[in-house]
Amino acid sequence: MIGSKKWKFLLFIFILIGMSIEGRNNIKKELQIKGEYSNYPMEKMIEWINLNTRNDSIFAGTMPTMANLKLSTHRSIIVHPHYEHKKIRHRVKLVYTMFSRNPLRHIHSILKQYQVNYYVYESHWCTITNRPKGCSFPEMYDIDEQDPRILTRTTLACQTLESHPQPYFKRLFNYEHLSIYEVL
């Protein structure tokens, strides 16, 4: 009769072998999937940036888009995916005020302070409505807002950017949900 420890060890080995066979089959199956990542609006935007902006231009926008922009165009960005730095978190919060109730002139002054030449705007970020109460951009900014005139505004800065960007911004590029605005 096999000892208890030896029996447990053999059982462990058989289970491990079974899992390894199934795991190997799963890996083979996944490696056979052929595909290609495609984000045509982003590709068009990157192409436009490479053709129409200077190499020393500075961009602002949402973190995921800025990461792609930096990687693909080597242009400077003021928000960065290394979000653990306190200064960068503060800058992200300032740039994301585009989705708050603040007036467009306020966002313009923030971007000018950081010498931003272009703002990359994604319209779907302005219209996110499927958030739980208290989790939308305007509600998050309302928590810190002290000015009652801003709290009573019903129009978001991003909505004003879309409809009346002048005299602070000029739209230079638009493709589907992506737009590039020059900071005037």
From TrEMBL:
Primary location group: membrane
Cited Pfam families: Dpy19
Top-level taxonomic group: Eukaryota
Keyword annotations of the record: Glycosyltransferase, Membrane, Signal, Transferase, Transmembrane, Transmembrane helix
Membrane topology: Multi-pass membrane protein
UniProt KW Glycosyltransferase keyword: yes
Name of the protein described by the UniProt record: Glycosyltransferase family 92 protein
InterPro entries: Dpy-19/Dpy-19-like
Any one GO cellular component localisation term in the record: nuclear inner membrane
Family note: Belongs to the dpy-19 family.
Region forming the signal peptide: 1-23
GO molecular function: mannosyltransferase activity
Subcellular compartments: Membrane
Keyword Ribosomal protein in record: no
